[in-house]
Specification:
Radius of gyration: 21 Å
Shape: globular
Strand content: under 5%
CATH architecture of the largest domain: Up-down Bundle
Oligomer: single chain
CATH superfamily of the largest domain: MFS general substrate transporter like domains
Structural class: mainly alpha
Distance between the termini: 43 Å
Number of domains: 2
Helix content: over 70%
CATH topology of the largest domain: Growth Hormone, Chain: A
CATH class of the largest domain: Mainly Alpha
């Protein structure tokens, strides 16, 4: 199992790009927590802290596909490094000015969110040119999904350590300075500087003109919704079963399951169309979420949480392959950025939906939101399986796809213009 990952990481530039991307994304993984802690330290209410964190999250969701499209048009270094610097400056402004005057605080988190560089989509666009082989690219997608789980586990811990050692403002400054260094490490690398997107057709919808991509995003929205609802439901469950420690155990079990599933998925080669495999994986993910509504004792809940996370990383890894096959020619970074946006918005909606469910039916009702969301994600894929069955990369007849090696033929379009 480890041999495939070791071979991948020994490939020139691979370890550097993966590490630099994860470090560069650290501000995004910890931004909402750092903002909440800083706002509370400045004397702001929980409501204000939540609103500022929400503004940051929504701004990030809006900025990712826009910056992703800019990367496809102008290259990675010319977009990602300035964006990372501006995002860091936005957080620095918040750390220096504080929450008074309030409009300045809102402007700071808005800039920090909108300018968050699309490093995640950029890395996935680079993998084919760095790794050369399709089986390695699929393994890299799985490793990417696993690494995300590590980052979203370690990141919040790092914030709390920085707060304990210095202050909330220092945590904001350090995390974002480190993020800029991570982005810098990526964009000065040879693959990033050499990468160019394929020529794209002029269309205001960009990547969203692909029916297959829209179908996938629709399904991933509900996967994100399920995860967001679990976050709230697990907190409500912990309050009745032992407090913060139980919450940490349950969420750690969820992350451990995702880690184990992602490592196992990426360690083998898979035959057949990834679209068909994705349907099976989402079905297993939904089945894993449904038993959470039983809300058993702590030991049982920990086991169910690990089981529910088992297929999350495989779903994401397989979805990355499907995105690569369906993104219109010249829009691969934008397409991957739309995945980030859709998932983030889904998680935010899930967080909002689980609150009323918990208030009316307790934590089992909150977990039920996750189960239902998983089933809806599956239904979306089943309803759109004909659209997903044929990759829809927009390119001239007979021309090789940008990242897709399946060589599927599709109608040609007028070439030479970009949008």
């Amino acid at each position: 199992m480890a041999a495939g990952y070791a071979e991948l990481l020994r490939t020139r530039h691979a370890a550097r790009l993966l590490t630099g991307t994860l470090v560069g994304r650290l501000p995004n993984a910890t931004g909402h927590i750092a903002i909440v802690l800083f706002t509370r330290a400045e004397g702001g209410s929980y409501s204000l802290a939540g609103v500022l964190a929400a503004v940051y999250g929504l701004a990030t969701a809006a900025g990712q596909p826009l910056l992703g499209r800019a990367v496809d048009l102008y290259g990675q270094p010319r977009v990602m490094l300035p964006a990372a610097v501006l995002s860091g400056l936005g957080m620095a402004l918040l750390a220096v000015v504080g929450i008074d005057p309030l409009p300045a605080a809102y402007a700071a988190v808005l800039v920090a969110g909108v300018c968050t560089p699309p490093l995640e989509g950029g890395l996935r666009a680079l993998w084919p040119s760095v790794l050369k082989r399709e089986d390695r690219v699929h393994t890299a997608y799985a490793l990417d999904a696993v690494a995300q789980e590590v980052m979203f586990t370690v990141g919040p811990l790092l914030v709390t350590l920085l707060v304990a050692a210095w202050s909330e403002a220092a945590a904001l400054l350090v995390i974002n300075a480190v993020g800029v260094l991570g982005a810098l490490s990526v964009v000065v690398s040879g693959p990033s500087r050499a990468w160019r997107s394929a020529p794209r057709e002029a269309h205001w919808l960009g990547a969203l003109r692909s029916p297959g991509l829209l179908a996938l995003l629709g399904s991933l929205f509900f996967v994100g919704l399920a995860l967001g609802s679990i976050t709230v439901a697990a907190l409500a469950y912990a309050e009745g079963h032992g407090g913060d420690t139980v919450y940490g155990v349950v969420m750690a079990a969820l992350g451990f399951g995702a880690l184990a599933g992602g490592i196992a998925y990426g360690a083998r080669q898979w035959a057949g169309p990834p679209e068909r495999r994705l349907v099976a994986l989402v079905a297993l993910l939904a089945l894993g979420y449904l038993p959470l509504a039983l809300a058993p004792g702590v030991a049982g809940m920990t086991a169910l949480s690990a089981l529910s996370g088992l297929f999350l990383a495989p779903v994401l890894a397989c979805a990355f392959v499907v995105v690569d096959r369906h993104a219109p020619r010249g829009t691969v970074t934008e397409a991957f950025s739309w995945v980030v946006t859709t998932f983030g918005v889904g998680a935010a909606v899930g967080t909002a939906a689980a609150g009323p469910a918990v208030e009316r039916g307790g934590d089992p009702a909150g977990f039920a939101v996750a189960g239902v969301s998983g089933l809806v994600a599956l239904l979306v894929l089943l309803a759109t399986r004909r659209v997903l069955a044929v990759p829809g990369r927009t390119r001239a007849v007979g021309q090789a796809a940008e990242n897709d090696r399946n060589g599927a033929v599709e109608p040609g379009f007028r070439a030479g213009r970009q949008a």
